[in-house]
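Dear H.,

Thanks for agreeing to be a second pair of eyes. The structure we're designing against is below in C-alpha cell form, covering all 360 positions.
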C-alpha cells in the first residue's frame, strides 16, 4: 500500500545499526514530518510530538506549512497485513493486502475480522470493501501457506486494528425563530451537521421533508426558508444530508412545527340569540308548562317602587295562552260534572219516593 515499506530480515540489522549511529536505536514507531517556513527554503524534520496536531489547524501553524503525517512501520514478520495509511471514513473504498516477505508466492489465503473468516481460503492476496461502513471496524489479520521455500509453510499475520470513522453525524433540524412561529412571520429551517477536517473539501447535499413528502429536493444549501408562515405550514419536518455520490446519507430526527394564529387584543364579541316568535295558542301542545320565571322584587333602596318589565315578554305570552286554554278545559269538565250530579240527584229522589208506596 502507499506510504508503507517492508524490509527483509537481512536488511533490518543494518537499518538498526544506522539508526543507532544517527539518533536512537528505536524500536518504537514514530511519525516524521517535514516543515519549512512559508517564506524560506529552509527545512527540517522532527517528531510530530514537538508541535500542535496539524489536524486541528489545517496543517498551518504560525506561518509554517506542514505535510500530512507519513507513518513508517517496520515489521519483523514473514507475513503481514497491509492496510491504508490514511484514516478511513464512511463511504471510502477499503483494500487490505496479505503480503509475504520478498513477495513469495502464497496459497490458501484467508482474511479474518475479529477472529471470524471473511471467506473461504483462496489464491487472492487482496480483499476489498467497496463502501466502508462503521460496522466494518475491527481487528483484521490474514493467514496463508508459503509455496516456497519448502513444501509449504503456514503463516499468520499479526492483527491490525482498523477503524472506519464517521464521515458526519446525523443532522439536527433547527427552526428560527421558534418551533411555534406566529402566522405571517418568516421561518427558517436549518439542517445542521459537520464534516471532519480531513474531508472538509467534500460537499454535502440537503433535502427537506414535511409529513412524508418532499418540500425541497437535494441542494447545496442547508437552509429552507418559509417567507410567510401560515397554518398550512404546520406539521412534522425532518431533513436529510447526503454525499454527492449518495454513498452516505443520514436523516435528522423529526421536529413538530405549529404555526400560531394572529393574536387579538380586543375583547371577544358576545352574540345574543334573537327572540323566537311565540307559538299560536290554538296549536300549542297540552304538555304541562314549565315553571314560570320569578317575578321581580322591589329594590331594597325603594320598597314602594315597582317597575314592570319593559316591553312585551314572548315567554310570558306563551305561558298565559297555555294557562287560558287549561282554564277553558276545566270549565268544560266542571259543566259535565254538574250535569252528572243533577242526574244522580234526580235518580235518588225518585228511588226515595217509590220505596214507601211498596211497603203499604
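And this is the sequence the design step returned. I haven't edited it by hand at all.
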Amino acid at each position: 500500500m502507499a506510504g508503507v515499506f517492508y524490509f527483509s530480515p537481512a536488511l533490518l540489522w543494518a537499518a538498526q545499526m544506522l539508526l543507532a549511529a544517527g539518533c536512537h536505536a528505536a524500536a518504537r514507531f514514530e511519525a516524521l514530518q517535514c516543515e519549512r517556513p512559508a517564506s524560506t527554503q529552509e527545512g527540517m524534520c522532527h517528531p510530530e510530538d514537538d508541535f500542535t496536531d496539524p489536524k486541528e489547524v489545517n496543517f498551518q501553524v504560525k506561518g509554517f506549512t506542514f505535510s500530512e503525517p507519513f507513518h513508517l512501520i517496520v515489521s519483523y514478520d514473514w507475513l503481514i497485513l497491509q492496510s491504508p495509511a490514511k484514516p478511513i471514513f464512511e463511504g471510502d473504498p477499503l483494500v487490505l493486502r496479505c503480503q509475504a516477505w520478498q513477495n513469495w508466492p502464497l496459497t490458501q489465503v484467508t482474511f479474518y475480522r475479529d477472529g471470524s473468516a471473511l471467506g473461504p481460503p483462496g489464491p487472492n492476496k487482496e480483499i476489498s470493501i467497496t463502501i466502508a461502513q462503521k460496522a466494518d471496524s475491527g481487528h483484521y489479520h490474514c493467514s496463508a501457506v508459503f509455496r516456497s521455500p519448502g513444501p509449504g509453510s503456514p503463516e499468520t499475520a499479526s492483527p491490525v486494528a482498523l477503524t472506519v470513522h464517521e464521515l458526519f453525524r446525523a443532522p439536527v433540524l433547527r427552526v428560527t425563530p421558534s418551533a411555534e412561529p406566529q402566522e405571517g412571520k418568516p421561518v427558517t429551517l436549518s439542517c445542521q451537521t459537520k464534516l471532519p477536517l480531513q474531508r472538509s473539501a467534500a460537499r454535502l447535499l440537503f433535502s427537506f421533508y414535511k409529513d412524508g413528502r418532499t418540500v425541497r429536493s437535494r441542494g447545496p444549501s442547508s437552509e429552507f426558508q418559509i417567507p410567510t408562515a401560515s397554518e398550512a405550514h404546520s406539521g412534522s419536518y425532518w431533513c436529510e444530508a447526503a454525499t454527492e455520490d449518495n454513498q452516505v446519507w443520514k436523516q435528522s430526527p423529526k421536529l413538530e412545527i405549529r404555526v400560531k394564529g394572529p393574536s387579538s387584543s380586543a375583547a371577544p364579541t358576545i352574540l345574543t340569540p334573537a327572540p323566537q316568535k311565540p307559538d299560536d295558542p290554538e296549536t300549542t301542545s297540552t304538555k304541562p308548562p314549565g315553571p314560570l320565571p320569578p317575578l321581580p322584587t322591589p329594590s331594597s333602596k325603594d320598597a314602594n317602587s315597582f317597575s314592570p318589565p319593559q316591553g312585551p315578554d314572548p315567554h310570558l305570552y306563551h305561558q298565559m295562552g297555555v294557562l287560558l286554554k287549561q282554564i277553558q278545559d276545566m270549565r268544560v269538565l266542571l259543566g259535565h260534572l254538574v250535569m252528572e250530579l243533577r242526574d244522580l240527584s234526580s235518580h235518588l229522589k225518585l228511588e226515595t219516593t217509590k220505596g214507601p208506596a211498596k211497603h203499604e
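Two observations from my side: Confidence is low (pLDDT under 50) at residues 1-58, 264-274, 277-289, 297-309. The first strand starts at residue 31 and ends at 37.

Warmly,
E.
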